[in-house]
Amino acid sequence: MLKKLIKLVFIFGLLYQTPIYSKSTTFNDFNSRDLSNYFSGIIAYENQNNSKALKFFNLSKVLLNKHDSYLKRYVNSLVLDNKVPQAINVIKNNGNKDNADFYDAYLILIIDSLKKNNFDEAEEYLTQSLKFQDQNRINLVIFETLKQYIYTFKNKKILNNKKNFGNLSLIAETFQRCYLKDEKTGAFFLNLINNQQGDYSRYIFFYLNYLIDKNKINEAENVVSQFDYINSTILLSQSKSWVENKKFKEFNKIFSCQNHKDIVSEFLFLASNLYSSQDNFEKSNFYLNLSNYLNPKFEFNLSLVAENYYLNEEFNKVRKIITKFNKKDEFYYWFRLKKEAQIIVEEQDYDNAIKFITAKYNQIDNPNLKMQFDIANFYKNSKNYEKAIEYYSRIILSLDDQSELRADLFYRRGGSHERLGDYKKADEDLLNSLNINPDDAYVLNYLAYSWLERDYKIDQAMEMLKRAYESKSNDPYIIDSIGWAYYLIDDYNEAEKYLKRAVELMPEDPIVNDHYGDILWKLNRKIQARYFWNNVLKFDDTEDGMRKKINIKVIEGLKNS
């Protein structure tokens, strides 16, 4: 009994001292169980365990209009659980309450109005949200963009935006023109695609969608001929497959720029991406679920939701989402299988993951190059280099001699040979890669480092590293390599400059810390050297062989020094 009393006093104290407590409410208005459930919900919510939070919020709904922050948390939890209609009902049923006045509420009501084709109502809610637009820049962007879109949907005209958000403004105008069937739409899409300030590969899909809607099939075929399956995004690979197999109707099934809901859904997807790039996966999923509510046909967007949950290690949620990708002739089915294999790696090991993905791969008729490439990489990452070489070789043999893809495949196969200690074949493959792409910094670095480790062609290796460094001067692996090269030619002062920077960029990398320790020892900074060697022993990914060598260094230092 005493423990229970202490617990309740603790909860009351926290509620009283924080904004959770509403000044209009007294303790007599609710019981200890409601408080306990609410407080548990808050903890789960703050720990980004949304499903658990929603469970507790549902148990404490008696507090719905008694705490300023309750309604906001509850609504957000509903959206995050993909219960958007329920979130809308909660907002509408509590719209006259003081605690219903928050930005997300107006945004959700705008989405609901657009879903119902009620542009006037959407405009009214947008005006009411004006007071929140300055809270952060993304809110401001959302307000101004929705303002443009709603105006275009209502008046069939483009609203000239007084605020310029760079490429985001260009995207908005492109879709407005597409909605209005403006003759300049194609040129605007091309401008987006060719923009060098960001990755606009997704807009190739929308351009293809536009071309096919205009029955410009030849132009669409020309577009897809310029990209390959291996280096393309999943959406573009799927688009390429549809065009090549004459499945043109598939495009309009998932998106149409004549549908206002599809356009706004895409904008919300863009907002979700902005938050995802900031590692704010909760906010990213919030916007993604609103996006999917407006356009549930575009199931491919769910891949980002799955990625967000995967990065947050919510694997059960990932599994639930990816079950939607079940068409074996589509690239998103392969995405599902890869994601399942990655989860097996995290929960078990590479061996079981390889067994799973290989079994699924063998069930697919005529697996494409992308699938073969992914299988090869799985084997390489699991250190089964013989099998990796086998699959890389298959792909190389299937490619035209002029294919630029061969450069990357030679690089990967060469790396696999090098790991097996077959340096002759490794050098041959890596040099073949450089013959195709002589300025590839990563191939230059890999081959040069391999030579350094073998005390082979040191001068040539140094020249290759200098070329790599000129191209990728901020890459920590290249910085480590060139620093190590200076170490091998006994220029310890120059080596220290590079390795110090490499450690700053990769403070938890075992090899970099080991190299830096060696250099410090040579510079007679032995206490510091042992510090960095000891760091290596603390890292989880330090291999057993390296641990044994480091333990000797910590005790004995570098021999012959």
Secondary structure class reads mainly alpha
Tell me the number of strands: 0
| Radius of gyration from the alpha-carbon trace, in angstroms | 29 Å
Low-confidence stretches: 1-28
Range of strand content: under 5%
Number of helices: 31
What would you call the shape? globular
Summed over residues and divided by their number, the pLDDT gives a mean of 85
Share in helix: 55-70%
Query: Quick one: biggest sheet?
Result: none
The end-to-end span amounts to 68 Å
How would you describe this structure to a colleague?
- There is one protein chain.
- The protein has 561 residues and is mainly α.
- It has 31 helices and no strands.
- The chain is globular and about 80 Å long.
- The model is unreliable at 1-28 (pLDDT under 50).
In short:
By secondary structure, this protein is mainly alpha-helical. 70% of the residues lie in helices and 0% in strands.
Topology:
Blueprint (H helix, E strand, L loop, with lengths): L1 H16 L14 H15 L3 H10 L10 H11 L3 H10 L9 H13 L3 H10 L8 H19 L11 H13 L5 H9 L8 H12 L3 H8 L9 H11 L4 H6 L5 H18 L3 H14 L7 H10 L3 H8 L8 H17 L2 H13 L6 H13 L3 H14 L6 H15 L3 H14 L4 H13 L4 H14 L4 H13 L3 H14 L4 H13 L3 H13 L5 H13 L5
Helix pairs in contact: 1-2, 2-3, 3-4, 4-5, 5-6, 6-7, 7-8, 8-9, 8-15, 9-10, 10-11, 11-12, 12-13, 15-16, 16-17, 17-18, 18-19, 19-20, 20-21, 21-22, 22-23, 23-24, 24-25, 25-26, 25-27, 26-27, 27-28, 28-29, 29-30, 30-31
